[in-house]
Inverse folding.
């Protein structure tokens, strides 16, 4: 019964409720065997879970680390019955760079099982490499100089060539890359539309002749076509500011501000959900709208 509940919560991205259950179990009088089985089941679900909005919540990830990952890391008895490479490692990597590096650090210098130590070293290097490159692309290189120095030293000392073939062959998704992708605020675009991030942290993509530029820090989305006709959508106050003469139809409704840009064959709405402002746009040639969340 508990397994079914956990599976349901996971499939519906209700990780906050799973963390609450973990906290209750840690304080309850439930027997240790049942508590262990629950922890192991959550690890298995987390290992297979896609990186969703619920798992990007910082508080949820920290609770999963504190109530689930850390006890598994520190107690070999709790880890028994869980496959380190195919279940525990991928589950931890769902929670991001920092938690993954913190977790693998426990095993890279010594572990009674050489296979675990070897796997932990490879995954530490992979996570350090991806984290360094991610921050470098966001102009945050200086804060990661120590990480890069440690990475180069350990890669040399451990004599490891960084590859991910083992993980790919086992069918385990590269979770950290999935986390990075999930951090991009644009969702629902067709795969043939390429979303890029500039060194300044702006998100850019094109739909037909219209270029979209998402300024995350300003919470502004700029649309501009090949004729340099443009408009600004300000998500902070849900306003649309077009160039003079550009045809925009817009109206406030109980569900948010709805709008259409007939010239570009686009329409949509700006609305708030759970304190988060969402821009939803439908366009000619696509059956489903895409969203930008800031």
């Amino acid at each position: 019964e508990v397994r079914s509940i956990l599976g349901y919560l996971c499939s519906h991205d209700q990780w906050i409720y799973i963390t609450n259950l973990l906290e209750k179990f840690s304080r309850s009088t439930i027997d240790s065997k049942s508590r262990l089985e629950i922890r192991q089941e959550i690890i298995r679900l987390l290992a297979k879970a896609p990186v969703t909005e619920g798992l990007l919540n910082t508080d949820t990830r920290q609770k999963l680390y504190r109530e689930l990952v850390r006890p598994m890391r520190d107690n070999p008895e709790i880890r028994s019955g869980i496959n380190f490479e195919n279940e525990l490692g991928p589950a931890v990597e769902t929670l991001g760079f920092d938690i993954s590096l913190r977790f693998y650090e426990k095993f890279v210098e010594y572990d009674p099982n050489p296979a675990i130590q070897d796997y932990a070293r490879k995954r530490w290097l992979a996570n350090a490499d991806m984290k360094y490159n991610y921050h470098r692309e966001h102009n945050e290189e200086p804060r990661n100089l120590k990480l890069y120095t440690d990475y180069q030293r350990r890669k040399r000392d451990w004599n490891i060539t960084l590859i991910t073939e083992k993980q790919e062959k086992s069918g385990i998704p590269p979770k950290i890359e999935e986390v990075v992708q999930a951090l991009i605020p644009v969702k629902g675009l067709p795969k043939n539309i390429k979303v890029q991030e500039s060194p300044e942290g702006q998100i850019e993509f094109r739909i037909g002749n219209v270029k979209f530029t998402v300024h995350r820090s300003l919470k502004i989305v700029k649309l501009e076509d090949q004729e340099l006709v443009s408009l600004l959508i300000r998500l902070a106050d849900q306003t649309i500011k077009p160039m003079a003469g550009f045809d925009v139809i817009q109206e406030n409704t109980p569900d948010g501000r709805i709008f259409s840009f007939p010239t570009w064959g686009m329409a949509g709405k700006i609305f708030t959900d759970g304190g988060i402002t969402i821009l939803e746009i439908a366009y000619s040639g696509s059956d489903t709208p895409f969203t930008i969340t800031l």
